[in-house]
Specification:
The complex is a heterodimer. By secondary structure, chain A is mostly helical. Chain A has helices at 27-58, 60-68, 72-97, 101-131, 151-186, 196-221, and strands at residues 9-11, 17-19. Chain A is built from 6 helices and 2 strands, in the order ββαααααα. In chain A, strands 1-2 form a two-stranded antiparallel sheet. The chains are: A mainly alpha, B mainly alpha.
């Protein structure tokens, strides 16, 4: 398969063909625009961390106790997987810029595979939590019944499922974007000379990684008080 | 074609090693050092990792305009953080608030323990 650049062609009403002069020819503009989009993401997750901090300040002990219940091995494994996937995505971009399109595609597939493993582990984790009665909508996370957890823990788990769920949704979007990128590469729309789409999707994947860098310690590590998984300074 | 491909590739691996080291520190910290300040230490390690990712994986190093935009964005989020922190410190309806009420938490906890 050749990887010659195929420009976008628009046909006017009188049948004449014109090459579309879009974002492919404006690398810096495309990059700046995507950064502006990512900053809205930072503000959205920033607001969620703000809410989390507010609840944490009010229900300190409950948060530490709830955090100690999470599976740090699975969460930590996902942290390493995302870390390696950020490397494969970066190497893919580097290979694309160096003219190794086949190598770039291989790296994108590796990233997709790692993303799927991440989602699989997350699914195992959520299933485990559901089986222990801790999930959105179940009695333990509803106030005012005999099985209710303390309010602080309800808030913690509510934020945990919301934020890790939203992060997981971003992972799914990322997989979709990478598949689209592969399609564009195969169609000759993304090449060594015109790789802004690849650059921006790699940036998106780094953002997904960046968010997890804060999600992981905030939920999983704050309650890791001692070897036994207990809580120190909690009460 | 990149003339410095091997150097750039080596850079990516160095960053990976740095991030793996910090991730290891994240895991051992609550059991080994600053055990009385787990939250602050974890967030500090997270910030160090974020800085490395932004500079080297997201190519912000040397970017002036985008760098300033990111600083503005983070400053804006920090500003709202500070406003809320100050507001919470002087929350005048704390006793009347359901979310802020520790009594609600204690009551539901006690109920669950009774069962």
């Amino acid at each position: 398969m050749s990887h010659e650049y195929v420009p976008e062609i628009a046909t006017s009403r009188d049948g004449k063909e014109h090459e579309v002069q879009g974002w492919q020819g404006d690398f810096y503009g495309g990059k700046l625009g995507f950064w502006l989009f990512m900053l809205t993401e930072v503000m959205m997750f920033g607001a969620m961390f703000l809410v989390l901090t507010y609840y944490f300040s009010l229900h300190h002990a409950d948060f530490l106790e709830a955090s100690s219940e999470l599976n740090r091995v699975l969460g930590g494994t996902n942290t390493v997987i995302l870390l390696i996937s950020a490397l494969t995505m970066g190497l893919g971009l580097l290979k694309m810029r160096n003219g190794d399109v086949k190598g770039a595609k291989l790296m994108i597939w590796a990233t997709i595979l790692l993303a799927l493993i991440f989602l699989g582990i997350k699914a195992v984790e959520w299933t485990h939590e559901y089986q222990h009665g801790v999930f959105l909508g179940l009695d333990a996370l509803q106030s005012g019944n005999a099985h209710s957890k303390p309010l602080g823990q309800i808030l913690f788990f509510g934020m945990y499922f919301t934020m890790t769920g939203l992060h997981g949704f971003h992972i799914i979007i990322g997989i979709g974007l990478m598949l689209w990128l592969l399609k564009r590469i195969n169609a000759g729309k993304v090449t060594t000379e015109h790789h802004i789409l690849h650059f921006n999707i790699a940036l998106y994947w780094d953002l997904v990684h960046l968010i997890w860098v804060f999600v992981f310690p905030y939920f999983y590590m704050i309650g890791a008080g001692d070897i036994a998984g207990g809580v120190i300074n909690a009460h | 074609m990149l003339t410095n491909y091997k150097t750039l590739k080596a850079g990516y691996y160095k960053v990976l090693i740095g991030l793996l080291v910090l991730t290891t520190v994240t895991f051992v910290q609550p059991h080994m050092f600053l055990t009385g300040h787990i939250f602050a230490t974890q967030i500090f390690i997270g910030l160090a990792k974020a800085w490395i990712i932004l500079m080297y994986y997201m190519h912000l190093k040397g970017e002036v305009l985008i760098g300033k935009t990111v600083i503005f964005s983070v400053a804006l989020v920090t500003f709202f953080f500070l406003v809320v922190v100050i507001d919470v410190e002087h929350f005048q309806f704390k006793d009347a608030s359901y979310i802020a009420s520790h009594e609600q938490s204690d009551v539901s906890h006690a109920t669950s323990h009774e069962d």
